[in-house]
Amino acid sequence: MATALAPNSGAARNYFADRLVAGKLDLRHTRTEILQLNVGKVCNLVCNHCHVNAGPARKEIMTRETLDRVIDWLARTDILTVDITGGAPEMIPDFRYLVERVKALRPTRHLIDRCNLTILVEPGYEGLAEFLAERDVEIIASLPCYTPRNVNEQRGEGVFEESIRALRLLNKLGYGINPSLPLHLVYNPNGAFLPGPQAELEADYKKELKENFGVTFNRLYTITNMPIARFAAYLRHNQKYDEYVELLVNSFNPQTVDGLMCRNTLNVGWRGEVYDCDFNQMLDLQWTNARPLYLWDIDPAAVEGRAIVTGDHCFGCTAGCGSSCGGALVA
Fold first, then answer.
1. Which of 257, 288, 263 shows the shortest CA–CA distance to 274?
2. What is the CATH number of the domain that holds 76?
3. SS3 81
4. Is residue 88 within 8 Å of 54, Cβ to Cβ?
5. Per-residue confidence at 154, pLDDT binned at 50, 70, 90?
6. What's the domain count of the chain?
7. Is residue 326 assigned to a domain?
8. Is the pTM value of this prediction over 0.85?
9. How far is CA 54 from CA 14, 155, 191, 329, in A?
10. pLDDT in tens, 286-303
């Protein structure tokens, strides 16, 4: 059964919600453990699988005023992990300011930078890798394959070579080697199919990258491509959209629901609006239809127990072994 991946609305049936009801599954927010900040859509790459439609021409960035309001809200909480994403988050003018302010609140707070690797070796970003290492910022880096052909096909010519340069720089600084500097890689399928088994892919990545390029890392996360934004356009261009959606729907795995990232994560957009996840943000699935709801307007203690806003795109996170910002959800 192929369905249109439409957000919740009075006019569109939510097949994912129907599946939850049929399985007697209740998807609600638990205790907030991660604050994920999508600080903008500007990026130095234009990747086929991007759910943000990010690129060099985008202008959306989180301003310092918005950053300050988000950090003031964070200071009232005991949330220990801040996950910074984009776009290429490092390209916003106040990226280093953001890192410094979060660390100043509580030095033990865990910071994650979701990095495309190539930005670390771009002109004008010299010293960025060293800056991250000095502040013990975890790096989760996108590398959709360990061969040049697949990466360049998905992300642009020359991207693989620049990614290897960046990985070697990170290894030199201790990333992937020093326990305080974790370096994890992300695999995205290069087409209309689900990721393979995460453990097997991780073993392949470690072998190939070490033997061919002298690169080491900690973990590999497999993430399913979401059929929205640029990847949806890619699927339609190749006449595979309906086929891929049907694959996601038919691969629904109820065992993934308890581990979904929306249960313990709050996602914040570049203007400060709050969402259940980055995909909901890109589809503008607000918590309320009345007006935008900003992070600083919610009580941190009042979020626990609220129902997650869903849509049929949620089949992407629950298909097969599941998919989250931390990779597969079940073995």
1. 288
2. 3.20.20.70
3. strand
4. yes
5. confident
6. 1
7. no
8. yes
9. 27, 12, 19, 26
10. 888 767 899 999 998 889
